[in-house]
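Table 4 source record.
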Amino acid sequence: MSELDEFRRTVEAWFRDNRPPEPDFLLPESFMEVGSDAQFEFLRNWQRKIYDAGYLGMAWPREYGGGGKPQIYQDIVNAEMARQKVPFVPNTIGLNWAGPLILAMGTEEAKKRYIKGILNADDIWCQGFSEPDQGSDLANSQLAAKRDGNDYVLNGSKIWTSLGSYAKYMILLARTNPQKPRYDGLSFFLVPMQTPGIEPRPIKKLTGEYGFTQTFFTDARIPAECLMGKEGEGWKIAMLTLTFERGVTGGQAGGISRVAPGLNDVVELARRSRRDGAPALQDPAIRDQIVRFMIEDQGDRLCAKRGEIAALCSERPNAIGLSVKLRVSEHRRRLMQFALSLQGANAVRFVGDSSAIDGGKWQRGYFNAFSSTIGGGTSQIQANIVGERVLGLPKD
């Protein structure tokens, strides 16, 4: 047995034996729906347990709290977590985009200060990009950061802040010079959320859950050392952050950020659903649609493999990474919509309705599926990026 095979078996056994018992409350599907203290503490304790076992940040440098191992070890852990559908780890923004960003361009002091806290969930991170009046137009961000001596003073508002109620730090894009062209007047900060004058207010979602906040900044004074890079480099740093968020650039710490019904669950639902007195899975139209989903699913998997082999994507090196968010998020939204269509009139029953099929998880999954088509750039924005940067189409 090879070393990797032995490691895979060890990981499989660890997650099987250490899976936490089901709590007496409903767990969120992803880090974007963590809305109660009970949910948060349950998930944070789970992340700590995984890190203590050595299964998070395995490829991050050992001197900052990582494992110092080749990426393949973390890939094996991630795949096993997804296969066993264990609870997700909550510090997604820290593990997958703030952490890689700090490792890529942070100071030595910043790496020592922040990285281990990201891995062991002591320090939860959130992201301050979107604004109430600007949406996905990051270049037009208006939250002001005015230099005053050794501090910056923040005024304005950010919205759709995932984990805003629980985060200790925020990666923040702010305008430091309104006189300069919009791309040049932005700066990037690592902001302590406990700063006086910063107030996250929870937002109730369509599903009845929380998880997002609108975050208000009123004369919030942060030390100038919170600035990342140089003043005026915010746009460049934000774009690098988005390459981590969209999976274009590797370096993430690992773990899974979502546990939700998938294609195999939909096939099982089709077996249990009825069409004209027979299982829906026997309906040729249903089977045809399921096969289409399977083809897309397999296509995405093969594309991901192709992306790992530079020689196979040298002609358009960023094509796979730039398009993956668009493909995967839209695939999920359509899959959940299809699952509802299998339920007929029962599709209107939601979580909390004793007659809802499977406790209403399909309806909840459908509504939550829209968040991925909006966060990190809407599908329309993503399609524009692919059109312009991959296909070379002219700008609007």
